[in-house]
Amino acid sequence: MKHTLFLLFALVLSSTLLSQEKTKKPFSIGVDYFYGNIFEHNIDIGHLIVGHPEGVMISYNRKTYGLTEAEQLHNFPDWGFTFMYQNMKNPVLGNNYSLYGHYTWYYLNRHVQLTVGTGIGYNTNPYDIDTNFKNNAYGTSLLSTSLLKFGFVKENIWNGFGINTGLSFIHYSNGNFKAPNTSTNTFSVNIGMTYQIDHENFPEYILLTEENKTDFREPIAYNFVLRSGINQSDLIGQNQRAFYVVSAFADKRLSFKSSVQAGVDVFFSNFIKDYVDYRSIAYPEDELTGDEDYKRVGVFLGHELHFNNTAFTSQLGYYVYWPNKFENRMYNRLGLKRYFFDGKYFGIVSVKSHWAKAEAIEFGVGIRI
Asked: What is each CA distance from 40 to 137, 182, 356, in whole angstroms?
C-alpha cells in the first residue's frame, strides 16, 4: 500500500513538474535609446524638419522556445509590447507617446533580429487652425504608428544582461481620418540593453523533427471581406465621410508561413464626392463637372505571413476603374489579420496607401471558404 501511494505521488508530482515545464513563460525587458532624422517624403513637411528626433523605447518580450510548431518553424521568435517616447525636436510637431504590439524574428544564430510593430500614438501638439497651423503632419492627437527595427543583438552576455544596436524606422499617420495628414517617417540609429528575467532557468529549445512536421499546403480558398472606416480628403475643413470596401479574392496556402492572393476591390469612397465638388469649382482646368463617379475598382496581388492564427498581410493593387485622378493608380495595403473558428472567419485592420501617403485605416471582417 505504501509503495502504491508513493508511486501515485511520484506520478502526480512528475506530471505537475512536466506541466510547469511546458507552460513556462520566460520574458525579457529591453530599453533602447534612438537618435535620427525625419525623412522628407513630401516637400510640404520641409519646414517641420529642424532637428534630430530622439527618444526611448521600453519593451516587454515574451520568449518562445518551441511549444508549438509555429514557434519552431519561425526560429523561436519573441512577441510583446513596446512603449515609446519620441521628442520630434520641433515645438510645432510636439512629442509622441506610442504603444505597439510587436513580433521579433531572429537570424544568423540569433545574432540578427528584425522587429515589426504596429500600434497607437498620441501627439501633444496636433494641427489647430488658430494656434498651430504650421503642423500639417498631424491633424489629430491620436495617430496610427508603425515600428521597424533591424540590427545586431547579443543576449545574456553577463547575468542575464545583453546588448543590441541597429537601425529603426518609425511612421506616424492618422490614415486621413482628419486633414492635414502629411505624416512623418523617422529613420534612426538605436542602441540598448536587455535583461532576461530568471535567465538561469530558461528552458531548452524544442526542435522540430521531420516526423512532427505538418503539411500546411491547402487547395485554393475563396475569401469575401467587408471593410469600413472614416476618412476625408486632403482639403482641410471638409467633412469626414464613411467609406466601404468590398473585396473578393482567392488564396493559396503554400506552407505554414506563406499564402499568396489575387483578387478585386470595390471602393465606395464618399470623401471623393467632396473632393470632386471642390476641384470642379476651384480648378476649372481639370474639366470636372462635379458629377463624376466616386467609386473605384482595383485588382491586387498579395501575400500573408502566418504565425498560428495571426497573419501579416501585404497587397499591391492597380485601379482598373479610376474615374477621378485622385493620387495615382497604384495602391498598397498593409494589415494585421486574426483568424477564428478554425480559420473560416477573420478580422483585419489595415492601412491603405498610395505609396507613403495613407488614404484610410480600414477595419474589416471576412469569411474564407
From this structure: 11, 10, 11
Domains parsed from the chain with CATH numbers:
25-201 (2.40.160.20), 215-368 (2.40.160)
- SS3 sequence, 129-173? CCCECCCCCCCCCEEEEEEEEEEEEEEEEECCEEEEEEEEEEEEE
Measured CA to CA, the distance from residue 23 to residue 363 in angstroms comes to 34
Distance CA 352, CA 295 (A): 16
By C-alpha distance, which of 84, 86, 87 is closest to 102? Answer: 84
Interatomic CA distance for residues 45 and 171, integer angstroms: 14
| Measured distance CA(263)–CA(16) in Å, rounded | 50
Alpha carbons 125 and 129: distance in angstroms, whole number: 12
CA 314/CA 336 separation, integer angstroms: 9
Q: Identify whether the C-beta of residue 363 lies closer than 8 Å to the C-beta of residue 229.
A: yes
Show the 3-state SS of 172-184. EECCCCCCCCCCE
- The rounded distance, in Å, linking the Cα atoms of 79 and 81 is 7
- The 10 Å CB-count burial string (b at 16+, else e) for 75-107 is ebbbbbebebebebbbebbbbbebebbbbbbbe
**CA distances for 268 relative to 187, 318, 335, angstroms:** 35, 16, 20
Strands (E), 50-94: 54-63, 78-87
Using the structure block, give the residue that is written with the C-alpha cell 525625419: 38
pLDDT in tens, 75-90: 999 999 999 999 999 9
| Whether pLDDT at 352 is above 60 | yes
pLDDT of residue 125: 97
Residue 272 belongs to what H/E stretch? helix 271-282
Instruction: Identify whether the C-beta of residue 52 lies closer than 8 Å to the C-beta of residue 89.
Output: yes
Strand blocks (E) in the chain:
27-38, 54-63, 78-87, 95-107, 112-123, 142-158, 161-173, 184-196, 221-231, 241-253, 258-269, 295-307, 310-321, 330-340, 345-354, 357-368
Residue 27 forms beta bridges with which residues?
62
Q: Is the pLDDT of residue 308 over 90?
A: no
Residue 35 CA, chain-centre distance (Å), reads 22
